[in-house]
Design brief:
221 residues; 2 domains
C-alpha cells in the first residue's frame, strides 16, 4: 500500500490536553449559567465552542451571548495551557514518533485548535518534523467537515489513497469516513474505543509504538 503521508490530530493524539479542554469547557458552561454531568461534559468537549453554546441554548430553550461564551472558553484554555506548561503536555512517545516518521513520510497536523494554541505547544525542532500545521484558523469549515483533510491532501499534492490519518475522536473518524481516508484510532483521548469503532478504523492503537509497527506493515503491503 503506497502510503506517502501521515496526518495527525493534535489534542488527545499528540498532546495530553483533553483534561485542560474539559476544564475550560466546564468553566465556560458555568460562566453561562448552566450545569452538565461529567458524562455530558465529555461528550460536549468533543465539539467546537459554538456547538457547545448552541447545545446549551437548545436544551433550555434560552439564549445568551454566544461571542462572550466563545471568548471565555478560549481565554480559560490559554490560561490553563500556560499554567500547566503546554510544551510538557506531549505524550511520551509522540515526539520520537514524529522524528522517526519524518524520515519516511510527509507529516502534517490537522487540528481544531487555533494558531494561538498551537504556538504554545510546538517548539521549533518539533515543528520542523512537519510539512505544515493546519488549524481552525486556516479553514472555513472545521472537523468533522472534510475541508481540513481535503485541503491538507491537496497541499501535499497527493491522492487520498496515499494518506493515513491518526486521531482520537469521533470528529476525526467522521471526517475520514466522509472523505474515504484510512483512519487510525488512537486511544487515550476524548472518545472511547466503542465510539471510534463506529468509523471503521483500519487500526486501533494504545500508543505510537503500536502505530509505528502498523504503518510499517502498510508500507510492505
Amino acid at each position: 500500500m503506497n502510503i506517502k503521508a501521515v496526518l495527525l490530530d493534535l489534542d488527545g493524539t499528540l498532546i495530553d490536553s483533553i483534561p485542560l479542554i474539559m476544564a475550560s469547557d466546564a468553566a465556560a458552561i458555568k460562566y453561562a449559567g448552566y450545569k452538565v454531568t461529567k458524562q455530558k461534559l465529555r461528550e460536549l468537549s468533543q465539539f467546537h465552542s459554538r456547538d457547545i453554546a448552541y447545545y446549551l441554548m437548545d436544551s433550555k430553550k434560552t439564549s445568551f451571548d454566544l461571542f462572550s461564551f466563545v471568548e471565555y472558553r478560549r481565554k480559560s484554555f490559554v490560561k490553563l495551557l500556560r499554567k500547566h506548561k503546554a510544551r510538557k503536555l506531549w505524550f511520551k512517545d509522540s515526539k520520537s514518533f514524529l522524528e522517526e516518521m519524518s524520515n519516511r513520510f510527509f507529516l502534517a497536523v490537522i487540528t481544531g485548535s487555533r494558531h494561538m494554541f498551537v504556538n504554545e505547544v510546538f517548539d521549533k525542532k518539533t515543528r520542523n518534523y512537519l510539512k505544515f500545521i493546519l488549524t481552525s484558523d486556516d479553514v472555513e469549515h472545521k472537523k468533522p467537515d472534510i475541508e481540513p483533510l481535503l485541503k491538507a491532501i491537496n497541499k501535499l499534492r497527493l491522492k487520498k489513497e496515499e494518506v493515513v490519518f491518526i486521531g482520537d475522536s469521533i470528529q476525526d473518524g467522521l471526517m475520514c469516513q466522509r472523505l474515504g481516508v484510512k483512519f487510525i484510532a488512537k486511544l487515550g483521548g476524548i472518545s472511547t474505543e466503542n465510539q471510534l469503532r463506529k468509523y471503521n478504523p483500519v487500526f486501533i492503537a494504545k500508543d505510537f509504538c503500536e502505530i509505528k509497527r502498523f504503518v510499517e506493515l502498510l508500507e510492505d503491503i
